[in-house]
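README: folding subset

This subset contains proteins for which both the sequence and a predicted structure token string are available. Records are stored as plain text. Below is the entry for POK9 protein (166 residues), shown exactly as it appears on disk.
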Amino acid sequence: KGSLGFDLATAVEITMIDIQAVKIPTMAWGPLHESKYQLGALLLGRYSASMKGIIVIPGLIDADFTGQIQIMAYTLNPPLVIPSGSRIAQLIPLANLSAQMLAPLPEEVNNPEERGNQGFGSTGGVVCLTLNMKERPVKVITATHGSDSITFKALLDTGADITILS
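--- output ---
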């Protein structure tokens, strides 16, 4: 009812014999869709899998992916057997908003390919995110000390570990 994600079950039994990541086929196939809209999804490990020593590498399932969804996972405590039908990961559905946000790029930069059933690669175009320097992230700040106060606009710095007012 209120769950954000959908559990993914393994399609085969896997024995992890070392700490190398392995691709584990699931019982789910793309494309993912909700009524008439195709969806992408974020693939994350389930908490219960982590408690068993299974580390799921997060991934993104594209809206146009048509193959069998696979889970990339590893363990730090081999050997480890994952039985067929084990629910070790989950999909968090995502609407494909990037198609509406991105302007078309020249053909030599953005040579669109269809994802099809080829996973673990990139078919997306190049993206360049910029910040208009005339629209900097500023906030109106009021500093108060006793009965004195001053109000001013300050530039926001999300990476700072110290604040200096002058």
